[in-house]
Write the structure tokens for this entry.
Amino acid sequence: VHGIMFIMNDKILEEIKENSLSKDSQESSLQENQAKKVNYLIFLMNDEPYAIESNLSREILNDFKVYKLPFVPNYIKGVLNRLGDAYTVLDPMILFSKSEQTSNLFLVCKLPQEKFCFKITDVLEFFEVDETEINSLEKINGIDYFSSSFLWNGKEVPILNISSFLQKIRRDLKNE
């Protein structure tokens, strides 16, 4: 009887080890899936949703005075003063050949050595997206203003490619 117990115990121990290994692989698989998620800030420009990676957003400012600048392209609305620093204000809708925004809300971007913000209409939410659900997009007028897109509430939401706006500003200001 004792010999049978040992055999059964060995069998049970083996099953426990297998289950444990299976759980470990499930947990590592779960961690891999979590590692493939990206968090985005979804906001409106006019009535259209757009997004940027949430780690690129510093803050949202409301009702700041924008000081106009002479001899700049029309999509550069001027600069605003944030804690003593001048931030360039862009209205991307003008670059997209759409109506200029009338709101006084600004999405300040968090970039090393760059100080600029987008004019926006409203902030909607932070939204987590699995990398497998992100779609690539075509360039507009040869410039890749959008890096990609994802589905949110049944709508395709373009993700802004911030570096393309910086390149556009540098290129346009050198030519003027």
